[in-house]
Amino acid sequence: MSGRLRAFIRRWLVFIAFLLLWQWVTVSARNPYFPPPLKIAEVAGTVFTPGVLTGDLLPSLGRLALGWLIAVVVGVPVGLALGRSPVITDYVSAMFFFARSVPATLLVPVFLVAFGIGPRMEIVTILWGTIWPILLNTIDGARSVDEIKLDTSRAFRISRPHWVLGVVLPAALPKVFAGMRLALSIAIILMIVSELTGVASGIGYQLVNAQGGFLLPEMWVWIVLVSVLGYLSNLLLSAVERRALAWHPGFHPEQLSA
Q1: pLDDT for 192-207, tens place per residue?
Q2: Which stretches make up the ABC transmembrane type-1 domain (predicted)?
Q3: Has residue 154 been placed in a domain?
Q4: Positive or negative: CA dihedral 162, 163, 164, 166
Q5: pLDDT tens digits for 39-65?
Q6: Domain range spanning residue 103?
């Protein structure tokens, strides 16, 4: 049995032990605020109807993916350009750090007034919170290009586009993926926060409705769903990262094992 398989089995055994402990503690305590996992699973079968899946789950995932992808499409090219332009970076760094320090959750009322109730407000909220880790990590990665690679590219007179795509971007990819992984976690949080007020659909909307109606097992169904979404999205991005960085000498795929 390989070490990777053993680590996989060990992690899932720990997770199963956690579920059994959770079941035993909640059954023993009989606290209505903390239902057992089996009760949550039972209620989940009644919550996830076709209407909920198409009217709440899929729209939330769509807004999550769109906001995060826009942040990647904007943040990576801008980060590469700024990372190789120290003078420009010095001019805008203060502005970037000031803007990054403003939490996206604090701007939800502003975005609600500016963009109105609907998907645009939610996407902009996700975009604001996710673009900063991607942008700043990309800048840091672009700055770390080996001088030998730069000298070699100059010696061979590589064109600017080939230099960016063939030298700078590959060297920055580890930092880029680190920013993308962090941004994905933030995007899930902001997806929920942006759906708590002023919307009529989505995971956050269903969560706050269950809470307001004192439907505690149903509320826990949505909480667990968010955790599962976070795990699956991280698993998918880790698989992409593992393939994209398989060539990198400093890459350790075992650190990404889920």
Answers
A1: 999 887 678 899 999 9
A2: 57-241
A3: yes
A4: positive
A5: 999 999 899 988 888 988 999 999 999
A6: 43-256
**What's the pLDDT tens digit per position in 218-246?**
999 999 999 999 999 999 998 888 888 87
Residue 185 lies in a domain: yes
Please, how many CA atoms are within 13 Å of residue 244, restricted to the half-sphere of its CB?
Answer: 17
Q: Which residue has the higher pLDDT, 96 or 187?
A: 187
Q: Which residues contact 69 (CB under 8 A, 6 or more apart)?
A: none
**Tokens standing for 118?**
């609907």
Amino acid at site 2? S
Report how many domains make up the chain. Answer: 1
Q: Is residue 15 part of a domain?
A: no
CB contact burial 64-95 (16+ within 10 A = b; e otherwise): bbbbbebbbeebbebbbbbbbeeeebeeeeee
In a domain, 238, yes or no: yes
Other Cβ atoms less than 10 A from the Cβ of 7: the count is 12
Distances (CA, A) of 111 to 75, 101, 124, 133, 198: 20, 17, 7, 20, 11
Which amino acid makes up residue 113?
A: V
Q: What is the sign of the dihedral through the CA atoms of 76, 78, 81 and 86?
A: negative
Tell me the two tokens of residue 126.
């996700």
- CATH number of the domain to which 139 belongs: 1.10.3720.10
